[in-house]
Amino acid sequence: MKYTYILALFIFISACNRTEQVSEDTETLTDSVATADSLLYPGEKHFRNIRQLTFGGDNAEAYWSFDGNKIVFQSNFTEWGVECDQIFYANVATANLGNEKPPMISTGMGRTTCAYFLPGDSTVVYASTHLGGESCPEEPARDAGRYVWPVYDSYDIFVTDLNGTTVRQLTNEPGYDAEATVSPKGDKIVFTSDRTGDLELFTMNLDGTDVQQVTNELGYDGGAFFSPDGTKLIFRASRPKTEEAISEYKELLSQGLVKPTEMELFICNVDGSDLRQLTNLGKANWAPFFHPSGEKIIFSSNHAGARGFEFNLYMINIDGTGLEQISQDEVFDSFPMFSPDGTRIIFSSNRNNNGTRDTNLFIADWVD
């Protein structure tokens, strides 16, 4: 409620400072922009004309098509007839996801994650556990205040068309293969796998051939994205250093779990060379994506929060300087991705969820 009040007051004060000699068309346009931006929090100067796309459930990891006209995302919205995350796509300009179910392109079995359009925008790569069982895999219990993510060993990476027909299976190694994203050059896929006994980054061709290991340090390496020119990777990683931290990491991984509460961002060339740590903020820094310039990274972090669950979007230069807070949420903003032309951004947020735990998708014009 207080955000609505503050924003309304801000709009009123701004309107008072405008010239009184405005045309009727201008007044109409001003009202339209104010309505569109009523989903913004004060201080979010990089967003304009924000639009909410989904209205229930947990909707996340929404990524643009190469032509910027479609998105693919995962959702567990029960009103769409799913019990855990499945993959959907939508045409951005015409989607009305508050009133109608978008096309589901995963099998509807198992659990899915991390879908991404392939060149041509007629096929999508994603990870699924459906070969390990038709039911949703069991989620880990939260005990003694420990928050963990599951690393299901039944995840493999598949390609589907927009009719939901599986085109091919890209991975068939034992263990976890997931978190696939595609280079803007359209020639490579990066993904996370534990096939070496640790969670490392790998690249492969679009048909699953020529698998190359990128990282090799102990710790979870994941959520990688290519730079706009396809030469670099940005990703999140844990790097346990103490004997206790190393022991905990290995024990959890043996149970198919990782603890995501201490992660920093790392950057390297696609072949793994020139690897360096980009952030040193503490807590959880993740969901990084390159700014269209290739010189900055947008990401989600709770480093400034007091309670651990206040995640906001931040921007940082690729040399580690110039940290800037982008969003101003008191709960959760994450999974930012710029459109291919750099004019729009999509992200997931708890804003406007009427006090529920729903996480919805939002699109905004981007203002540098």
TrEMBL record:
<comment type="similarity">
    <text>Belongs to the TolB family.</text>
</comment>
<dbReference type="InterPro" id="IPR011042">
    <property type="entry name" value="6-blade_b-propeller_TolB-like"/>
</dbReference>
<protein>
    <recommendedName>
        <fullName>TolB protein</fullName>
    </recommendedName>
</protein>
<dbReference type="Pfam" id="PF07676">
    <property type="entry name" value="PD40"/>
</dbReference>
<dbReference type="InterPro" id="IPR011659">
    <property type="entry name" value="WD40"/>
</dbReference>
